[in-house]
Design a protein that fits this description.
Layout lengths: L2 E7 L7 E6 L1 E4 L20 E5 L1 E4 L5 E3 L14 E2 L15 E8 L1
Length: 105
Protein backbone atom coordinates (compact mmCIF):
# COMPACT_ATOMS: atom_id res chain seq x y z
CA UNK A 1 0.00 0.00 0.00
CA UNK A 2 1.47 3.34 -1.06
CA UNK A 3 1.13 6.60 0.80
CA UNK A 4 2.03 10.23 0.26
CA UNK A 5 2.54 12.43 3.31
CA UNK A 6 2.92 16.20 3.19
CA UNK A 7 4.45 17.95 6.18
CA UNK A 8 4.50 21.70 6.85
CA UNK A 9 6.46 23.80 9.34
CA UNK A 10 4.31 25.36 12.07
CA UNK A 11 6.28 28.65 11.96
CA UNK A 12 4.10 31.12 10.02
CA UNK A 13 7.15 32.92 8.61
CA UNK A 14 8.79 29.74 7.35
CA UNK A 15 6.01 27.35 6.20
CA UNK A 16 8.60 24.94 4.76
CA UNK A 17 6.81 22.02 3.07
CA UNK A 18 8.04 18.56 2.23
CA UNK A 19 6.23 15.71 0.49
CA UNK A 20 7.41 12.15 1.09
CA UNK A 21 6.24 8.86 -0.38
CA UNK A 22 6.28 5.45 1.23
CA UNK A 23 5.91 2.24 -0.75
CA UNK A 24 5.41 3.97 -4.10
CA UNK A 25 5.85 1.76 -7.16
CA UNK A 26 8.69 2.38 -9.59
CA UNK A 27 7.36 1.43 -13.00
CA UNK A 28 9.24 -0.31 -15.79
CA UNK A 29 9.89 2.11 -18.64
CA UNK A 30 7.71 0.03 -20.99
CA UNK A 31 4.70 -0.01 -18.65
CA UNK A 32 1.59 1.36 -20.37
CA UNK A 33 0.43 4.73 -19.02
CA UNK A 34 -3.02 3.39 -18.09
CA UNK A 35 -1.60 0.92 -15.54
CA UNK A 36 0.66 3.42 -13.75
CA UNK A 37 -0.85 4.54 -10.45
CA UNK A 38 -0.06 4.44 -6.74
CA UNK A 39 -2.41 1.52 -6.22
CA UNK A 40 -1.03 -1.40 -8.21
CA UNK A 41 -3.63 -3.68 -9.78
CA UNK A 42 -3.13 -7.43 -10.02
CA UNK A 43 -2.28 -7.45 -13.74
CA UNK A 44 -0.01 -4.40 -13.43
CA UNK A 45 2.33 -6.01 -10.85
CA UNK A 46 4.52 -7.42 -13.63
CA UNK A 47 5.40 -3.84 -14.63
CA UNK A 48 6.64 -2.81 -11.15
CA UNK A 49 10.43 -2.82 -10.92
CA UNK A 50 10.52 -2.12 -7.15
CA UNK A 51 8.86 -0.07 -4.44
CA UNK A 52 10.39 3.16 -3.18
CA UNK A 53 10.17 5.16 0.03
CA UNK A 54 11.62 8.60 0.70
CA UNK A 55 13.13 10.32 3.72
CA UNK A 56 14.19 13.87 4.51
CA UNK A 57 17.79 14.60 5.42
CA UNK A 58 17.81 17.10 8.29
CA UNK A 59 21.40 18.10 7.41
CA UNK A 60 21.16 19.09 3.71
CA UNK A 61 17.30 19.34 3.52
CA UNK A 62 17.18 17.06 0.47
CA UNK A 63 14.75 14.23 -0.08
CA UNK A 64 16.50 10.91 -0.50
CA UNK A 65 15.41 7.37 -1.15
CA UNK A 66 15.27 5.38 2.08
CA UNK A 67 18.09 2.85 2.24
CA UNK A 68 18.98 0.09 4.67
CA UNK A 69 21.87 2.02 6.20
CA UNK A 70 19.83 5.26 6.58
CA UNK A 71 22.56 7.43 5.10
CA UNK A 72 21.84 10.44 2.91
CA UNK A 73 23.32 9.86 -0.58
CA UNK A 74 23.80 13.62 -1.06
CA UNK A 75 25.80 14.54 2.06
CA UNK A 76 26.41 11.10 3.68
CA UNK A 77 24.81 12.25 6.94
CA UNK A 78 23.04 9.79 9.25
CA UNK A 79 20.55 12.53 10.20
CA UNK A 80 17.80 11.11 7.97
CA UNK A 81 14.28 10.13 8.99
CA UNK A 82 11.02 8.98 7.42
CA UNK A 83 8.55 10.30 10.01
CA UNK A 84 8.60 14.10 10.37
CA UNK A 85 5.66 14.88 12.68
CA UNK A 86 6.81 16.78 15.77
CA UNK A 87 10.42 17.13 14.62
CA UNK A 88 12.05 20.54 14.43
CA UNK A 89 11.99 22.21 11.03
CA UNK A 90 15.48 21.93 9.50
CA UNK A 91 15.13 25.27 7.69
CA UNK A 92 14.09 27.72 10.42
CA UNK A 93 14.95 25.68 13.56
CA UNK A 94 11.93 27.26 15.35
CA UNK A 95 8.85 25.50 14.10
CA UNK A 96 7.93 21.83 14.12
CA UNK A 97 6.54 19.69 11.34
CA UNK A 98 2.82 18.96 11.28
CA UNK A 99 1.26 16.32 9.06
CA UNK A 100 -0.70 18.47 6.61
CA UNK A 101 -1.98 15.78 4.22
CA UNK A 102 -1.90 11.99 4.10
CA UNK A 103 -3.02 10.05 1.02
CA UNK A 104 -3.17 6.27 1.27
CA UNK A 105 -3.72 4.11 -1.81
Amino acid sequence: MAEIAMYRCSNQKCRFEVRLTHGAPVWHQDAPKHVRSLSVSEHARNYVVRYRSESLCATCFKIAETTRNNTCPHCESKNIREEQTGHMCPRCQRGTFNLDLLLVH
